[in-house]
Fold each of these.
Amino acid sequence: MGLQSQLSDVSSESILILTAVLIGKSVSYLRSLLCTILHSLGLFSLRLNRDRHHLGSSLYDVAGSGLAGVILLCEQLNLNRVCSHRKKSDDGVDRFGSDCVVCLNRMGDGDHVRKLACRHVFHKDCFDGWLSHLNFSCPICRASLVPEEHVDYTQRRVAGDLLAWFPIQ
């Protein structure tokens, strides 16, 4: 009975993440073991160390790109949750348009809305849907929501973390 109470604290998402990490580490370990065995038999030359700098820089570009998009999505969804507010009739939203261009419905008093830096206004839930498709720009003017420097930094950080967890050896 004690095992069931311990498992109820673990969400299904965390089990999937732990399984992915376990598989990744196992593959990394087996690859490292195979390279070591082949090198000790003289069948494999570890010339990878010479090309590691060049290979590492290209891996930084590739490794972090997909996960960086997911991290940026989480940041934008959190920002959307924090920065949204209830529309009031006197807040001046009507001069920027009273219809949400995502759902094409009128924005009424009390609706949760999000005003972007470009001054366009959307329903919070509609904008969440827009972000969930990894669109990090305004649906109307395509102004970027995330500065390019932040995207590059996030990609480098995620790639560095991935390469630290799964080193090329």
Note: Helices lie at 2-7, 12-40, 52-63, 65-83, 124-132, 148-165.
Amino acid sequence: MKANEFVKNFGWDEARIFTNSYAGDIDTAFKFLKVKDKSIQMNDGSIEYDFHIDDLKRLVESWGLVEKFGGLENAKDMVAHPICFGDANFEIEDRLNKAIADVESCS
């Protein structure tokens, strides 16, 4: 399964912990974990995952951005009313739209 499936099954906190641990030793409950060129292959006993760590990091960063705007519904409201962004509205609106799509793909 892909990175968004990992988030669906384990949640945002576990994904954040996993990405933060990636730089050092990863202490997880997974029975099989193989890391090669930032590609993660693991098995939690019932489901096999195969994804790139950068994909999981992007999802976690997107979740963090959406949370800064007060959660998914508030972020959607901000995009619906881009005047709130001021002069930098296009760049922020584009990034927030991508972040919203990332977070929704994990629901």
Note: The beta strands are 32-36, 39-43, 48-52.
Amino acid sequence: MSPQAATAQPTKILFAPRQDPVITDIAKSLTPPGFELVMADFGTPEFINAAAEAEYFMGLARNMGGEFFRSAPKLKLVQLLSAGYDRVDVESARKAKVPVANNGGANAIAVSEHTILLMLAVLKQLVRFHQDVVAGRWRPPASSEAPVLELSGRTVGVVGLGNIGKKVARRARG
């Protein structure tokens, strides 16, 4: 074994912000040999120290601008866990010659289903009826101002037909 190999430091991956222990355990189990996963929260001394040595960043962006890229001179890639990259100053990344990859579509199904859930909650007046039940008014009077409303046969408007919008439209169509 050469002296260089004996003293080789693992390649550092900065993972921020800290995540739920389940996610942390999964990330650690997927970290290949020769790499070290450093978990840190943005702005902490641990984050600042890790950024100086990290070759890779993985996580969610929090105002990643010129200061971040200058503090991470070894950085080779920013891999976001989100579809959005609006919190990354792409021009600063470009100047630092650091590619930024997002995770487009990763949550599209969950978000589209949640959108349908919220549409139904509004249509069915979920919050109002929940508050009534909690207050002990579980049955509205027969002449209620709150008729039973159904989504069936209605037109649903979807603003934007990107990845999520298309999935919402498909689900609304039935």
Note: The beta strands are 11-16, 35-39, 56-59, 77-80, 100-101.
Amino acid sequence: MVLAAALVCGSASAHNTDGTCGVEGAQMVVVGSFRFTSRDLMAYAEQSQAGGGVCTPKSCGIVDDHWSVATKRAFDYCEQIVPGSVAQVTSPTSYNDPQLHHTAYSFGPGTPDLQGVCLICRLPSPSAPIKLPARSP
């Protein structure tokens, strides 16, 4: 049985982008990959701002920094290719810095591409029911 990793693993806005499942015996399964150039991310940021949407606080209370834009782009892409999947960014390392990701990560001319995989959480198959011994009358 496959369930959406977002249900089990949390959301990007909670910083749970490490691709771990919260259910014992569950496994993360790669269902796609992505590679976004700085140009792709800048176009996505411009498109998102031009949409006239309401700005809401992103991860860590920061609004629309490069890390947040990249995270939203990766998660949107994964949701498009396999609904319910989540993104796990593997490169560059500055994106995943546990303390400084909002300031250390940025995109622009000459910066590394944002790369990663799309994951779903595969839950373990239910075990066969236990057969009780027959009662003698």
Note: The helical segments are 5-9, 38-50, 66-81, 101-104.
